[in-house]
Amino acid sequence: MQQVKKTFDFNTDLDKDSLATSISEKWTSWENERSSWQTRYQECLQYLYATDTEGIMSQSSDWQNTTHIPKLTQIRDLLITYYLEALFSLPNYVEWIGDTSEDSTFKKKAAIQSFCSSILEKSNFKRVIRKLIEDYVDAGNAFAMPIWDEEYRILEDGTIQTLFEGVKALRINPLDIVFDPSASDFKYTPKIIRSVVSLGELKKLAETSPDMKKAFDRAIKNRNNVLETISAGDNIRNNISTIAGFGNLTDYYSSDVAEILTFYGTLYDVNEDKLYSNKKIVIMDRCIKLTIDDMEDVNNCDYINHTSWRDIKDNLWGMSPLSNIVGMQYRIDFLENKRADIFNYISDPMWKTKGEVTMPEYLRPGGVINVDTDADVAMVTPDTTALNADMYIDRYMAWMDLMAGAPQEAIGFRTPGEKTAFEYSQLVNAATRVFNRQIRKFEEEIFEPLINNMLKLYLLKMAGQTVSIKIIDMKYDIEKFVKINIDDLKGQGKLIAVGSSNYADKNVMAQTLQQLSNTALFMDEAVRANYSPYVLGKIFSYVTNLDKYPGLFRKDARLYEVTHQAIQMEKGQQLLDEERAQAIQEARLSQEQQQQLVAEEQEDEIQSDLEELSNE
Fold first, then answer.
1. pTM, rounded to two decimals
2. What is the pLDDT of residue 41?
């Protein structure tokens, strides 16, 4: 008797939690709502990392050129470089602003800023920000959150060495987070973050909690049921949902990794008629609930931060600066390859023959083509107008620079025409307005909230403990370590980013100084007498970043050094005079000694002669 194959249905045969199913359905729904943004993002990535046009453009023939001019990639790298330079233009790129007089004292301000600089340096904060800037430009959206991390190492003698214990900034891949895009405020809307974890790591984590171990065992039982069905050759009915990176659910359940969805926010479970307020819910395989915890009490909401390069009306998913100019990149590649095709056609043309024609094996200068009576041969020449495509390519490139907020003046080129210093300054300031606005938007929406949440999370985790921080002794300009209680760092205020504003201020000041130095008004001695040389020198050191060298600029430094130099020269001259006088004296003494020796020798000779005469 033939055995009837069973059918395993993922919708009905899996052991599921209603709460996990609800979160899974929200993930699928919100992921579908961002499909238009995801399509634009994937198109940008294709052009950014393309090496030729075969993968991004349809080619009708094998002989067509496939050259890719990476203009979009150049603009992307340019924006990222400028944004990072503006963010970290100062060694201390964050500043504490207190809301009360107690929280604004110099001592507390210095302590908080030094403490924040210490934890940011230890957590590789700049590396995370670089990745966020890349997301900001590539995807038009950047996501980050603070996490508490502990890293240990077991030594040979069995002791545990702490490698790191503190707060870190975590970059969230824009493809691994979903939320309601129609919500009015990202801060309070629920979010779901996706991650892929190996079963071994989950097993190790499940051993720490009995409830989580039970949930993990249920998930493993689901997987075993699927694997048994596959090995028996029974039918498997997939539902419409798929898991990114695995294709269908059958491939996913056959792997040794698990998809983890972490829900942040408030959720109402209709089946259980229960409200989960400000919860962090972790589910596995989109059907098993692992843990439910209260969110960290940082801002009375989740601490996930988001910014977008260009806001879209009534949609929280933003737009990349590259999305609008991808079409121009396509046009550049199209024109370049068409121009190259025509050039190849001219250099290796087609021939039109009439009658009996014997073509040589190789066409060369001075070659002979034999034709019969009434026969003819002619070269088919294409229209060479297409060779002028370079003009249009240059135009598209210039448009792309301007529309992405990277004007020609900012990348080392100057527009044609003679300009005065004031006109040129106006052009530069106007050209950088988009850049300044966008980098300031990044600071306000994600950079500053992230560092403030990192500080709040650290103070929450380390409350009542004492830590050592490195501070700068302004009197002696040296670094020293002091111990401070964490509770002393609590206060009313916030950390702000000062990198981009400092970057823009320095550019304006440098242009102003240059203009003043070249004007006839400033050359007037009566006018210059009203300007403080010390303050002008201080401004010059500030805008040229020379103030980062201790001792280079100080009041009346030239006067002190010139005086010191004169004193040293005078001491040197005095020493030289003393050595010269001593040499002269020694020379005189030496001359007298020589004369005395000569006289003694002469006297000895005379005495010797007298003795000889007396003996005779």
1. 0.76
2. 93
